[in-house]
Amino acid sequence: MTMNNQGRPTAPGTIETNELPTISGDRGLDHEEPLIFEIGRDGHAGVDLPDVQLSETRLAGQRRKGAIGLPGLSEPEVIRHYVRLSRMNYAIDSGLYPLGSCTMKHNPRLNEKMARLPGFGDLHPLAPQSTTQGALQLISDLMKWLTTLTGMPAVAMSPKAGAHGELCGLLAIRAAIEARGETRKRILVPESAHGTNPATAAFAGFTIDEVKGTADGRVDMAELEGKLGPDVAAIMLTNPNTCGLFERDIRHMADATHKAGAYFYCDGANFNAIAGRVRPGDLGIDAMHINLHKTFSTPHGGGGPGAGPVVLSAALAPFAPLPLLVHDDKGFRLIEDRDELPEGAKPFGRMSAFHGQMGMFVRALSYMLSHGRDGVRQASEDAVLSANYILASLKDVMSAPFGDGPCMHEALFDDHFLDGTGVTTLDFAKAMIDEGYHPMTMYFPLVVHGAMLIEPTESESKESLDRFIHVLRELALEARDKKTARFEGAPRLAPRRRLDETAAARKPVLRWKKKDLPQAAE
Amino acid sequence: MRYHPLTTADRTAMLSKIGVPAVDDLFKDVPSAAVVPLSAFDLPDTKGELEVDRALTRLAAKNTAAGAAPFFCGAGAYKHHVPAAVDHLIQRSEFLTSYTPYQPEIAQGTLQYMFEFQTQVALLTGMEVANASLYDGSTATAEAVLMAQRITRRPKAILSGGLHPHYAETVETVAALSGQVQRAPVTPGKAEDLASLIDSDTACVVVQSPDVFGLIRDLKSVAAIAHAKGALLIAVVTEVVSLGLLEAPGFQDADIVACEGQSIGNGLNFGGPYVGLFATREKFLRQMPGRLTGETVDASGKRGYVLTLSTREQHIRREKATSNICTNSGLCCLAFTIHLSLLGEEGLTRLARLNHAKASALADKLAQVKGVSLVTPSFFNEFTIELSKPAAEVVDTLAAKGILAGVPASRLLPHDEHLRDLLIVAATETTTDEDADALATALGEIL
Question: Which of A300, A392, A498 sits opposite B19 (nearest CB)?
């Protein structure tokens, strides 16, 4: 009989839960859920709206001719559908989410409540500015937090995600170079960079020159200096880097970059390791985006929305995109018109229609005020402490490519400990799902074979970390002992078994289509 | 610091396991000169929930919420009623606090709603395929232009004068990197001549309908002109509720459709986060930017969903990626999908008709006010009026009286002197007769 860790039976006698199919196809509280299109039917709605008389004289003859094809459902049907779908998701509120490089930490609900205050949530971006002073002050307050924590003088608030922030930073660099009357086409990108870095550089019209790493997981300074030259526009560094390590030579790197007339872009995705302790401005950085969801805990929501404000050095500040926020005796004001620019401002353009991700700004400021500067610093320290605790607790059974550490806020392992076992990084990750954990980031960074990058964050208790460490230790030991049963065909206990991703890509099915129903007999 | 679970005793035990005496030893790779004391940061220390709530509530109270006044602002962001169920459902922990669905076996909830979203967007726009959302309508439009440049291998984009000027600036900012952008003249209330601008270098023509002044455009005729010269038609929709009443761009021969989806399921949020809808023809699928969910089966043969066609993306192709974006507006697209599921065919149709009826009645009422004339002969729920005074002044005067009268065209296009007196006015299902009367009366008093 199978027992849980309190010694209670989890399965009756010898009957395995997997083996006896149910009549409904559901498994207890785990429901199979069709698509919304397969539940709905014509002529029904989950909202009550009047059927008004319509004059078509103002429709320019463009009235829709056919049906759209949307299903009709009642409100209870819609609610049940999405509640059932939600139950097929793992989330940080249900368990530890150790995705390295992604950062899943506690999402306080106070932040959600604040973002929904009508003065923020129900505010129009083009309402008269006299009626939006509180919102503009909030943006200004957030800008002060970001510039103070980073030690950088300016910040562009409108980028809508980290990658959008990278683009904003590179466009500012491009504008600064053009303003000097120069053309510089090359950007140096270390091989350990986030994939967005080279993609963004190419997107912004630059060519990419990859810089190799050293055996200890950092940028090879000799190679970097060898590649610096009069055609280099910038280097893009992630620090702490994607191997979970701090680039010790960063100050030297900044000096060499500036000496070559280039700018120093830092991918700030990992700012949560050093916030409240180290100011990137002191390290010689010219531009850095800050993923508000990583460092300041705006919820990720299954893939966004994000927000990627970009802090800028004095050299790049004049090129920040529109709109610009100013504060004078008339109050706060957004400048959208080039004729009204303050002295010296030379914005390179506009990143998006309005002023940025206000809803995320409210959440981030709520989080910052709750933490305070002391809490922000404590969060960085606890994140780094937790990652090193995991590294120290697992390095004897799993393999750490860069030795004893210390690491920053994420602990990196590779797949050497699985050599000869037949178990892959993927199998190992999927076995974690059966244990009730979201797997760590796998196969990233690309510079490490079979990488497993674990980011515990500061919001896990020691008990939570200990349980997680225990499970990983046991899995690692079973794999090394070639007890591979847990890994074969894992996951077995998730809403789905392993999914066929190759088939999905080979013949893409990207939308539901109505099946041709058989004609009823006359 | 209620969010930090570690105790001092925990920290000591953990440091002991690591084998260092203090947390500072873990930061030994950071140059010591770069480590600053806490006092170096001129910022407040931690606050309790009550204090934070008070501080932010006080800031929020300095703003006039759309629901607190007779309200007529549009121009790319619209006030609609969002059913209570939508916000309740998106706040479920399993949606709100999940990450990108990299582990599909335990992310079917996210993946299935994205698949439903893709289907809804394809149906609404009349296109064959849609992605799982982009940041917003303006960045979606910019991505559409870049995609057209990739497909046609031509450099030039022609932007209609009726395209939202902030969208046009967003397109110019990124498309100027890989080509040229030409804006057509601004002709409020009339379609401009686009045919004469299209040549053999033209990758695409970008036309918004209803346009920024509210005018409903004939996309089909523009598509014909563009296609005859080998260019693509990009259709832009900033008020997606209009698709409940107007012909879908896909049935008017658009090649790529970029929309702002904020109107369905999402609040005004002072400009963001919003949700960009992006749809195209199947033959252009592999040139499409953004995240995609595809249907597949699991090892036991059950239907399931995964992120797919990632070979276009930055984490595989790096500098050769289709785009640098690596996220979508997940939660906003969920809100869109839930709201649209609640509406269904019947609800969306009624909502769109109601919007048009409200706007029509408002236009009729305002046109009777002395000093007001209607500029846009056709419209959906937003139209432009010409006033006998500069519109920005009128809006400021009315704001002081507690009426948010609309968006002056000069706020979007400050340099066109002939737009100085134009006011863009929107009405939706939330507009009451009392609101409309208040605006008409107030305009009558000051014009």
Answer: A392
- CA atoms of B271 and A246, how far apart (whole Å): 36
Residue A218's Cβ-side half-sphere holds a number of Cα atoms within 13 Å equal to 16
Length, in residues, of chain A: 522
Q: Which of B30-39, B168-177, B333-342 has the highest mean pLDDT?
A: B333-342
CA-angle at A403, arms to A400 and A409, nearest 5°: 70
Taking the C-alpha atoms of residue B313 and residue B291, their distance in angstroms, rounded to an integer, is 8
Q: Is A29 on the interface with B (CB under 8 A)?
A: no
Q: Which residues of A touch B277 (CB under 8 A)?
A: none
* Nearest of A365, A289, A155 to residue B43 by alpha carbon: A365
User: How far does the CA of residue B238 sit from the closest CA of chain A (Å)?
Assistant: 11
Contact residues, chain A, for B407 at CB < 8 Å: 126
- Name every chain A residue with its beta carbon within 8 A of the beta carbon of B49: 110, 370
Which of A160, A185, A386 is most worth mutating to test chain B (most B CB atoms within 10 A of its CB)?
Answer: A160
Distance CA B121, CA B129 (A): 8
- pLDDT digits over A129-166, tens only? 999 999 999 999 999 999 999 999 999 999 999 999 99
**Spatial separation of the C-alpha atoms in residues B14 and A385, rounded to whole Å:** 7
The answer to whether residue B34 neighbours chain A at the CB level (below 8 Å) is: yes
CA distances to A185, A247, A303, B12 from A454, in Å = 36, 19, 19, 22
Is A201 near chain B, with CB under 8 Å? Answer: yes
Residue with tokens 């320290």: A381
> Percentage of residues in chain A with pLDDT exceeding 90?
86
Q: Nearest CA to A359 among B90, B181, B105?
A: B90
Residues 6+ apart with CB under 8 A from B316: A195, B310
Q: Nearest residue on chain B to A75, judged by CA atoms?
A: B342
The token duo for A157 is: 């608030």
Distance from CA of B197 to the nearest CA of A (A): 24
Tokens representing B347 are 């609800």
The answer to whether residue B107 neighbours chain A at the CB level (below 8 Å) is yes
Q: What angle do CA B357, B362, B365 make, to 5 degrees?
A: 130
What six digits make up the tokens of B17? 């396991």
Condensed to tens digits (0 to 9), the pLDDT of residues B289-327 reads 999 999 999 999 999 999 999 877 877 778 888 888 889
- Top pLDDT among B382 and B31 is at B382
User: How far, in Å, CA of B114 to CA of B304, rounded?
Assistant: 12
pLDDT value of position A21: 85
* Relative orientation angle of helices B433-446 and B391-400, to the nearest 10 degrees: 120
Angle value at C-alpha A121, between A323 and A80, nearest 5 degrees: 135
Q: Rounded to an integer, what is the distance from CA A463 to the centroid of its chain?
A: 26
The residues facing A186 across adjacent strands are: A207, A232
Residues of A in contact with B291 (CB under 8 A): 303
Query: What DSSP letter does each residue of A24-59 carry, written as one string?
Result: SS-BTTB-----HHHH-BTT--SS---------TTS
> Which of B213, B230, B249 has its CA nearest to residue B412?
B213
Q: Give the separation between CA A414 and CA A403, rounded to whole angstroms.
A: 11
Q: Could you say which residues from 205 to 264 on chain B have a Cβ atom under 8 Å away from some Cβ of chain A?
A: 209, 215-218, 243-248, 251, 260
Whether omega before A98 lies within 30 degrees of 0, making that bond cis, reads no
Cβ-defined contact of B106 to A495 (cutoff 8 Å) = yes
- Write the CA distances from A381 to A457, B11, B95, integer angstroms: 10, 10, 29
Query: Position of tokens 């582990």?
Result: B103
The Cα–Cα gap between B9 and A462 comes to 10
Tell me the C-alpha distance between A456 and A410, whole Å.
7
